[in-house]
Amino acid sequence: MSQDKYTAETITWVRTWVPGKLFSFRTTRDRAFRFAPGQFARLGLRREDGEAVWRAYSIVSATHDDFLEFFSIVVPGGEFTSRLEHMREGDPILVEKTAYGFLTTAAFPQGEDLWMLASGTGLAPFLSVLQDLEVWDSYRHLILVHSARTAEELAYRDMIEGLREHEYFGALCREQPGKLVYLPSVTREHVAGALDRRITALLADGTLERAAGVALDPSRSRVMLCGNPAMVADLRKELAGRGFGASRRGKPGNLAVENYW
């Protein structure tokens, strides 16, 4: 890739959620880098031969942050993550100058309720969406569903629940009870306060809507999906039967999906 298409940045922070499996990291951010909540960046690491390996990562951080944050799974033997998981503060990383992706609220017309359904590291783009002032002003309900196998994989749980105490978001939550609905689901162990099945099963039998206290209605609901490809495919099929679909030329939709995984 031509050098004028990326910037050389530095890793400034690393947090391990599950050793050898899940971690987050931050990099410096070029002043000219712009993105919309829900988009992803392409990151590069140089190999010993000087060539760079590139991968796409959804951006966790808010658009106003002076850093870029990412959430990653370790792929056993993966050329990129096997190197990335050992990176530390001060290490170099490349960031392509352009942000990509259509998993944004601009993908569909205004609605009443915004549903964000994620599994694993598919949570990442929704963390950025949930830090966007416009999103909070535009929707009556913000419903985040995050499915993980174990409790320790429920990364960012404290941050999400802490939004209710945020100076601005917290005020909206107090004014509008039920404004933010966070529904974690853990599939391989019992966790107090969490659901216990995959999102597809929770959606199919109505448990998800009952837990949220909000109905999935094509006329008012807007749904965003990100995570395991099989889960996304199953959810798309289920939602299509309920009247949900992506925007097409001349036909606004009510479903947005990211396919770079």
From TrEMBL:
Q: Does the UniProt entry include the keyword Transferase? A: no
Classification via Gene3D superfamilies: Nucleotide-binding domain of ferredoxin-NADP reductase (FNR) module, Translation factors
- What chemistry does it catalyse, as a reaction equation? 2 reduced [2Fe-2S]-[ferredoxin] + NADP(+) + H(+) = 2 oxidized [2Fe-2S]-[ferredoxin] + NADPH
Q: What is this protein called?
A: ferredoxin--NADP(+) reductase
* Pfam families (alphabetical): FAD_binding_6, NAD_binding_1
The FAD-binding FR-type domain covers which part of the protein?
4-106
Spell out the family assignment given in the record's similarity comment.
Belongs to the ferredoxin--NADP reductase type 1 family.
Query: Which SUPFAM superfamilies does UniProt cross-reference here?
Result: Ferredoxin reductase-like, C-terminal NADP-linked domain, Riboflavin synthase domain-like
- EC number from the UniProt entry: 1.18.1.2
Coiled-coil regions, chain positions: none
Keyword Chaperone recorded: no
Q: Which domain of life is it from?
A: Bacteria
Alphabetical UniProt keywords: Nucleotide-binding
